[in-house]
């Protein structure tokens, strides 16, 4: 579980900085080589006092952090926002974290692997584990996707008709889709033996971002035929 760095931890980190740089401004972060070739944070001690007055767009900063799966260094963030220095970036991050804390938000901007990343607070870890487990369970094989597509477009449909289209037995695959709450029993056919008809569920619509089965993408030839 990821541990969030408290403000007093950050203060302790700054207290461990080398003392050979004489400046009235806050001490820079420890020198580190930028892996992406962006602005070098080691040059913070050479930044002019006016750099603290540079305006940082907090919305843009949040957008950049939300749009990446990997930590972004202060130098890289400064480069993306066309800033000549990294100190304003770290100041804006501190201000955003203060806003998040005061408004009771579930996340903070934290330093990870030499960069910055938006992370959720540890107390939400158990609930997020359940979410990710459900997402992992929802992963479908190629056979499951093919079967699900047939059911979605042809519903209500008999298992025999699904197997005729796919050319193989689909009993286990349909059962697996039902366990994932993507396929359900939609009724019984009006024919001898009253075989089961299958259709898709509300969970299917949620997973694929559809309002109804009418929103399923239609093949071009089918669209042209209707026109």
The count of strands amounts to 5
Order of helices and strands: HHHHEEHHEHHEEHH
Largest sheet features:
3 strands, antiparallel
- In DSSP terms, counting alpha (H) and pi (I) runs of 4 or more, how many helices? 10
Summed up, the domain count is: 2
Helix/strand structural class: alpha+beta
Q: In CATH terms, what is the fold-level topology of the largest domain?
A: Arc Repressor Mutant, subunit A
Strand order of the largest sheet: 3-5-4
Task: Work out the strand percent.
Answer: 5-15%
What is the helical fraction, as a range of percent?
40-55%
Write down the oligomeric state. single chain
Distance between the termini: 55 Å
CATH architecture of the largest domain: Orthogonal Bundle
What is the element layout, followed by pairings?
Blueprint: H1 7-15, H2 58-66, H3 74-80, H4 87-102, E1 107-112, E2 115-120, H5 125-137, H6 142-154, E3 157-158, H7 159-166, H8 171-179, E4 183-188, E5 196-200, H9 202-207, H10 220-226
Helix pairs in contact: 6-8
Task: Characterise the protein shown here.
This protein folds into two domains: 7-124, Arc Repressor Mutant, subunit A, CATH 1.10.10; 138-216, Winged helix-like DNA-binding domain superfamily/Winged helix DNA-binding domain (Arc Repressor Mutant, subunit A), CATH 1.10.10. α6 (142-154) crosses α8. It is 43% helix and 11% strand. The model is unreliable at 1-43 and 223-227 (pLDDT under 50). It has 227 residues and is of the alpha+beta class. Strands 3-5-4 form a three-stranded antiparallel β-sheet. Strands 1-2 form a two-stranded antiparallel sheet. The radius of gyration is 27 Å and the shape is elongated. The longest helix is centred in the middle third of the chain and has 16 residues, at 87-102.
């Amino acid at each position: 579980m990821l541990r969030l760095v408290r403000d007093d931890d950050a203060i302790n980190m700054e207290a461990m900085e080398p003392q050979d740089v004489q400046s009235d401004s806050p001490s820079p972060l420890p020198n580190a080589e930028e892996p992406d070739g962006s602005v070098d944070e080691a040059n913070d001690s050479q930044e002019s006092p006016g750099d603290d007055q540079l305006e940082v767009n907090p919305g843009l900063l949040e957008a950049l952090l939300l749009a990446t799966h990997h930590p972004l260094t202060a130098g890289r963030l400064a480069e993306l926002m066309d800033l000549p220095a990294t100190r304003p970036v770290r100041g804006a991050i501190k201000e955003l974290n203060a806003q998040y804390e005061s408004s009771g938000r579930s996340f903070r901007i934290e330093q990870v692997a030499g960069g910055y990343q938006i992370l959720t607070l540890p107390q939400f870890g158990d609930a997020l584990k359940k979410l990710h487990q459900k997402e992992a369970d929802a992963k479908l094989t190629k056979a499951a996707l093919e079967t699900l597509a047939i059911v979605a477009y042809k519903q209500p449909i008999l298992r025999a008709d699904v197997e005729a289209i796919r050319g193989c037995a689909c009993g286990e695959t349909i059962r697996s889709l039902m366990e994932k709450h993507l396929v359900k029993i939609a009724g019984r056919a009006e024919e001898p033996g009253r075989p089961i008809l299958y259709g898709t569920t509300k969970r299917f619509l949620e997973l694929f971002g559809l309002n109804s089965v009418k929103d399923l993408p239609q093949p071009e030839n089918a669209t042209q035929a209707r026109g």
